[in-house]
Each structure stands twice: as structure tokens, then as C-alpha cells.
Design goal:
Elements (H helix, E strand, L loop, with lengths): L9 E7 L4 E7 L5 E5 L2 E5 L4 E3 L1 H12 L3 E6 L8 E2 L1 H8 L2 E5 L2 H11 L15 E3 L4 E4 L2 E7 L8 E5 L2 E3 L21 H12 L6 E3 L14 E3 H7 L9 H12 L8 H8 L29
Parallel strand pairs: 3-6, 6-8, 8-9, 13-14
Antiparallel strand pairs: 1-2, 2-3, 4-5, 4-7, 10-11, 11-12, 12-13, 14-15
């Protein structure tokens, strides 16, 4: 009997211009089992109001393509957008997964935001905590989890065949690599994670979580490992660890904090869920003063 080969995944990609974020849908063409990677919930900071326009786009794909949601996969606890994971889980089902390093992230930011003692710092807000090397099936698709820390302690890459969903580890080659100045970030660790990605097969597609295109240009959703390895402006094949750490640390000292870091981190370390309402029925987030980020230089 002829052995059946794994199918090529079905893919959909959505770019949220407000946060420069890509959300990906990956599905098995035979079973229609699917995962959503890094979903965005729209948040307007001036009014502190949410909307579900981005999530509605994803739900439409699931409806029209008759997909079943098995996983909502976070590449890390994002600081630049609020996750739509709980909204999508309520609508479509599935389990929410993130890297096991989220526990360190929770402990750090629970102190920063003075979260109450009942805030769990064991990752239990998520349905599953992935560790590097773990494998799982998405229908007939074989998936593998690669630990790629450095930007954050919980950063992961999800490998599905020749497709790697790499979070913030790398950006399109003309933009470089992720920052490492958030608590728990480590430029030397990021260098090691980049090397692991660049050791993947040349034709592996690196799918980004972000791009910041110039006005009038289209965002770049992916490049091959071969292209990234030879053209990334921060880390190419001949870049040494020492060169990268110096470049990354110098650049990070000049970066302002992301616009949505205060609401995003508070919510995303809890899998995107809101904290309990106060006695007056209103939900509040905290703003720590003179703690996060630095003014632009």
C-alpha cells in the first residue's frame, strides 16, 4: 500500500494595520481542523473600548470554509495588541496555548501592576503550556513547538511542515529582529533562537507576526529561511553573537514603549481575559507611573 504523505496546510493571513500585526489561520485540508495564531482584538486606547472587527474576519473564514477550531496559539504574551483568544474561544471553541515561560512573565508583571494575590502566576489561565520540542497533531498535520526565547521568556515558534510561525523573533529582513529590553528579554538568547530558525531547511517559510512597512508599501508576511539568513539587516549568517548583542542593546536603548503595552500586557498574561469588575460594575486596568519604557530620544 502506498504511504499517505502529510498534506500541505491551508493558510489564511490577516494584517491589522492599527497594530502592524499578522494573524494566521492554519488548517488541515482533509479534516478541516484548524488553529488560529496570534489573534487580535481591536482596542481603541483613547476611549478604552474594544471591538471585534478583526475577530469577525476570522470567524467568517471558519464559517465559510467549514473549519473546526482546535487551537488558539499565542507565540508569546504580546505587548503591542490585545489578544482575541477568549472572544474566539467563546465563539468557536478550541484550546488556548502559550509557552511555559508565561509563568515567569506573569510573576514579573504581577509585581509591576500590583495584581491581587488571587491572580494566578502558574499559567492556569491558559489551557496548555507548550515546551520546546513538544509535538501535536492538527488533523493530519504534524506540528512541532520550538522554544525561541530572547524577545520574551515565553516566545515560541510553531512549525507546521515547511511553515514556521515565528512570533516576534524575526521581522522582515529590512526591519531586522525583535527588541530584547522587556523584562526577561535577553539579546544573547535571541541570537541563539535566530540561529535555530536559520538552521531550518532553506525553503522553510518564516511567517511573521509583525511588519512595519513604509507608506505605500505592502506588508511582508513571510520570507524563506534562505532569504532571512542572507539578508536580515540585524542578523545574517556571518553575524557573531557579540556583534548582534551590541547592535540589539544599542538599538533597544533608543526605543519607546509600544503604544498599547499597558493594557495589552495586563490582559495578555491572563490569556486576554478582563480582570473582575469593581463593585460599581466597571472593569479597570492599572497604569504604573515611571516604570514601563522610556521616553523617545
Amino acid at each position: 500500500m502506498k504511504q499517505r504523505t502529510a498534506p500541505e496546510p491551508l493558510l489564511w493571513h490577516f494584517f491589522d494595520a492599527a497594530t502592524s500585526t499578522f494573524t494566521h489561520i492554519v488548517a488541515c485540508p482533509r479534516t478541516r481542523r484548524a488553529a488560529i495564531i496570534d489573534p487580535v482584538q481591536d482596542y481603541e486606547p483613547k476611549s478604552a473600548r474594544f471591538s471585534a472587527l478583526s475577530a469577525d474576519q476570522l470567524r467568517a473564514v471558519f464559517r465559510d470554509e467549514k473549519l473546526t477550531l482546535e487551537w488558539i496559539l499565542e507565540t508569546h504574551a504580546h505587548a503591542d495588541h490585545v489578544s482575541a483568544a477568549p472572544l474566539l474561544q467563546k465563539a468557536l471553541g478550541g484550546k488556548i496555548g502559550i509557552g511555559e515561560g508565561i509563568r515567569d512573565v506573569q510573576k514579573t508583571f504581577a509585581r509591576v501592576f500590583d495584581l491581587p494575590p488571587e491572580f494566578a502566576k502558574d499559567g492556569s489561565q491558559f489551557d496548555h503550556l507548550w515546551h520546546g520540542g513538544e509535538q501535536f497533531k492538527l488533523g493530519e498535520l504534524q506540528c512541532e513547538v520550538l522554544a525561541t526565547p530572547g524577545h520574551t521568556p515565553d516566545s515560541l515558534t510553531y512549525l507546521v511542515g515547511r511553515h514556521a510561525f515565528i512570533g516576534d523573533t524575526l521581522f522582515p529582513p529590512n526591519y531586522g529582529t525583535a527588541r530584547c529590553d522587556f523584562p526577561g528579554g535577553d539579546a544573547a538568547q535571541l541570537y541563539g533562537s535566530i540561529q535555530a530558525l536559520h538552521l531550518l531547511a532553506d525553503d522553510t517559510l518564516l511567517h511573521f507576526c509583525h511588519d512595519y512597512p513604509a507608506e505605500g508599501s505592502e506588508p511582508i508576511e513571510h520570507v524563506t529561511v534562505a532569504v532571512s539568513r542572507t539578508t536580515n539587516i540585524h542578523c545574517r549568517a556571518n553575524t557573531t553573537r557579540e556583534q548582534f548583542v551590541e547592535l540589539r542593546q544599542t538599538r533597544d536603548r533608543k526605543l519607546a514603549a509600544p503604544q498599547l503595552i499597558i493594557p495589552a500586557v495586563q490582559l495578555n498574561i491572563a490569556a486576554g481575559r478582563l480582570p473582575p469588575a469593581a463593585d460599581n460594575g466597571i472593569v479597570y486596568l492599572k497604569i504604573p507611573l515611571e516604570v514601563i519604557g522610556r521616553p523617545p530620544t
